[in-house]
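Protocol step 4 of 6: record predicted structures for both targets in the notebook before any analysis. Target 1:
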Amino acid sequence: MCAYVLVADDDHKNAELIKRYLDREGHDVKVVHDGRSAIDEVRSARPDLLVLDVMMPGVDGLDVCRILRRESDVPVLMLTARSTADDLLLGFDLGADDYVTKPYDPRELMARVRAILQRSRRTTSQAIQVGAIKIDPMRHEVHVGSKRIDCTPVEFKILATLAASPDRVFTRGQLLEQARGIDGFITERTVDVHVMNLRKKIEQTPRKPVYLVTVYGVGYKVTNGSR
């Protein structure tokens, strides 16, 4: 699974270590050492994954993630020495796909990289099956059992994002960032409206959903409907 991975880390030694491990995995790797260069490279080259250090001078990793999520769905794996719940939630709210806290085992980092790339490629090309729900990104189609469901572009993006990582809870902010490139006027409140509309289309009893489930106080997830 060769991919183009961009590493943004102002610590040259750490960046080179990450590059060596990614090289061993067969990836094409580019390293930059500041946030502005990371933004420019994502815009021009569209990498498959951005490995992004939080603590960088000037434009830090959080600002990079915030800026890119307005215009790109590139997967982002953040590296940070901050490990409090608030710090992690902030990164996820800004659109990070995963977090690795320092110090870390490079083998764990590579495992996280593989998982993100697999999820990303499943979301963008391969059909996704969760329980009776089947999502085909290439054809932009959704089926529940044998029934085809018509979804708006924003509904499709939200459902595909959730279904690509079954049982993972996404905050409204994360879903908002995923859909913002489709609808620049979407808000966290309208995310709830889109979820409500999706339930009307995919659930047998929308008021008692078994596929698109609310995790109270956090956000939403998609399950296989077996509960």
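Target 2:
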Amino acid sequence: MAVTRRIPGLLVTEHEIAVPLDHSAPGGEQITVFAREVADPDGLDRPYLVYLQGGPGFEGPRPTRRPPSPGWLDRALADFRVLMLDQRGTGRSTPVGPATLVGRTPAEQAAYLTYLRADAIVADAEALRAHLGSAPWSVLGQSFGGFCALAYLSQAPEGLREALFTGGLPPIGRHPDEIYRATYARVLERNRRYYARYPEDRDRFLAAVAAAPVLASGDRLSPARLRQAGNLLGRSDGPELLHAILELDPTSPAFAHDAESIGFARNPIYAVLHESCYADGHATEWSAQRTMPPEYADDPALLTGEHVYPWMFEELGALRPFAEAAELLAAHPWPRLYDAAVLGGNEVPAAAAVYVEDLYVESAYSLETAAQVRGLRTWVTSEYEHNALRADGAAVLDHLLDLVRGRR
């Protein structure tokens, strides 16, 4: 049963449906999928815009009419009712964690986790659309949400009125090794820029490594784990956020807290399934580990980016319960996510913001994909980083809607 409530300036309706874990076996294990519908009080007759969250492994935003609500929401509500989907495994959808997987063998855990990719999220969205009795709807995909939107165009284009992508046009068919080599090249350049801006932070990084503080979780902060703070450098405010951590005394509680907040404890799916997002017909075999450039062996202060490594499942207490399943998933021959023939004949209006220096989704590959999707219009810009939808959401969404509707 849907639950509707008023919060300041908004009308919010909560929807829960049961769906099969495996959509090809509708009589099998069932899970819950949750979505929160957000509308202006006078906008209940507007069409739906489904927001597909970045990740993997993060739930949809919790909206308000004031920060930290997403900045694009007001612009979206002028045209739409917005459906914030908690992708399977996250938020109020049946969550994934040690408790979910208890009693399953590592092989059974790995099998469960294979049903959490973009193709299953698309099938959930279509089940939700049928439940709501909605006409084809619009989707807005941020980062990994864009991977889901491309799978939607491949798998169920009849369910879409239009598709909008922000920093989330994935490669089609490329091997994960190619993708990670490209992202490492971006990260090495960001290292150069960061240490040029904050040269004193190289010594601070090494001092923090030498201190090896114990974090609140009981984990000890290793050099490899602190290197992962470089993941912040793909955001417009990332260098300043990283500097704010490194300038702290590494023996202080503040440093221990902030260093741990970079981690994966809250959203383990992000670590477990990250490489599989790029596995369009390939096994990943710990691609980021295998393709790490030799510079990292020579320079202990070099930062990494959005990369996942097998050592994390031993060193991070929150990830240890997933260690054996993660090894099995690294060897898993993942099926194709995208249908090039369907995309080549696409008839759904689509537009994508491609950020030239995107640290996480390589822009050259995004443009390669754009050329394979019939009718998709691109906005290629160096004005924004990957977090543009968060940093200047109303302007980004407005630009995409103008493109997809032929106003630009």
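Step 5 preliminary note on target 2. Residues 3-94+115-173+337-404 form a domain with the Rossmann fold fold (CATH 3.40.50.1820). Residues 52 and 111 are 24 Å apart (CA to CA).
Proceed to step 6 after PI sign-off.
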